[in-house]
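Example record

One chain of 324 residues, shown exactly as stored in the release files.
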Amino acid sequence: MTMERIISLLPSAAEIVGQKSNSVTLSPATFICLVGGQPEMVGRSHEDDFPSTIQHLPILTEAKTKFTTSADVDRQVSEALSSGNSLYNLDVDQLKILKPSVIVTQDLCTVCSIDLVTVQRVALTMEPRPKIVTLNPTSVAEVMESITTVGEAIGHVKNAARVRADLEDRIQKCKDIAAKAKHDNPEYAPKRVMFFEWTDPIFPAGHWTPEMIEIAGGAHPINPPGSHSKRVAFEDVQATDPEVIIICPCGLDLDATRKEYNLMMEKDWFQEMVKRATTVVLIDGNQMFNRSGPRLIECTEFLVSLLHDRPDFEPAGFPWERIK
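Predicted structure tokens for this chain:
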């Protein structure tokens, strides 16, 4: 079999391609890596930091924004996009030197990673021209389909099918727990969840995350499954009267998330909402929930453990902190 030369410009893509695994535990596995393509990877984006075994690969992108606070990053992003500028730099010279046969990227979010048009423009100047694989999942089912797409693109079809089947089995187990809770309690009502994907301005979870909350037996009334994350007013957040508050800002680790939570606690409306809630948690939003890769299954299992008090479902080493 001909070896590919694979570049990932999307963190969740590296999580699919890189590591062949007999037991699909997602702590050590990610898209390209998960289906067995890691030995064929030759480059990555600056955000491709998982698994650690790909961190020696050349980095081909860098962010033009610098994180200070969530409010300031929103300002930087808005200014860049309004002037028509990309939020990322691409090392075109290094990309050409690496001579990739496959580039995996996305066209779902211009804020999340290098835009597709830039990648396509560079690919047109290369000889031989690399295959561009674009992943744009907005639901759990589409994330699973991405595993098949990547497996087919890099010649690891059987591994991809096995991995997908194992992950879908884990999703079903999460659904079974929620179904049993409803069956055992005629008065069961899904817990109302407010998931903060960004804190200032407020962006509630979108795309696959509201669906994962529902799979786990909860509800996310402010934004339904499949919808884009969109800016909302704090009055809209208050109106949902959440029982469970999850702070998980996109791209922020647990330390940065804790700082954002402390800033939010300076606001009277948020203090009152925290008092009323039964559960408040912080989660590493760089590693979990915000990447459309196979670790979303770990995130769904975590939600089951949180909403149903099932510590046996909590993935080992899951990066979170309970406030309440």
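Notes: The first helix runs from residue 11 to 17.
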